[in-house]
Amino acid sequence: MVLKLHGLAMSTCTKRVQVVLNEKGVDHEFVPIDFAKGEHKSEAYLANLQPFGKVPALEDTETGVKIFESRAIGQYIASKYRGQGNEVSPPESDLKAFALYQQALSVEQSYFDPAVSGIAFEKVFKAMKGLGQTDEGRVQALVAQLDAALQGYERILSKQKYLAGDSVTLADLYHLPYGAFVEPFGFAELLPKYPHTQKWWEELKARESWKKIADAK
């Protein structure tokens, strides 16, 4: 196959790429990285695929492109396979749509991700990495930060169906892995306060592209 995705099936960032591949209907080879054996820290992996020793990384054997960082990989896939599957990013030639899309991407990375990734770290990854026990005070502060962010989401989504307008884009899809991960840790309890945001979230989770990988272990 043309694309090789190196990653970990349960990884939130790997799932971020996989949902884009599914939206675009792109066949690919999944190359599992064995963290227990330290494959992500091997000299070959660091030198050729991901210099920071993280997942995922993508190889395009057709173009020779190697790229890491899940959001960048998602954009590469959306751009290369424009015209195939669902269009999840507008063309740069549509100045207004592209600007609103870039704005929506920034919203996810600036207001949503810091809170949810922080919650995930405190509740799960901190202990897994041997960095101590959960700081519940920190979790509560992050949930409050997420609550404040969702107020902004509600203002946007009360006027349009998705963050960049009336069509789903990468900016929406990128919320899925961490959002689903932290639902039990406060996110789900916040959503009923924000009905438009809750509807948006439930519709995202119901997409076939996500359902195919949501429970990957």
Automatic annotation (TrEMBL):
It catalyses: RX + glutathione = an S-substituted glutathione + a halide anion + H(+). Signal peptide: none annotated. Pfam families: GST_C (PF00043), GST_N (PF02798). Residues 1-85 form the GST N-terminal domain. Keywords: Transferase. GO terms for cellular component: cytoplasm. Its EC number is 2.5.1.18. SUPFAM superfamilies: GST C-terminal domain-like, Thioredoxin-like. Residues 94-217 form the GST C-terminal domain. It comes from the Eukaryota. GO terms for molecular function: glutathione binding; glutathione transferase activity. One of its GO terms (biological process) is response to toxic substance. Belongs to the GST superfamily. Phi family. This is glutathione transferase.
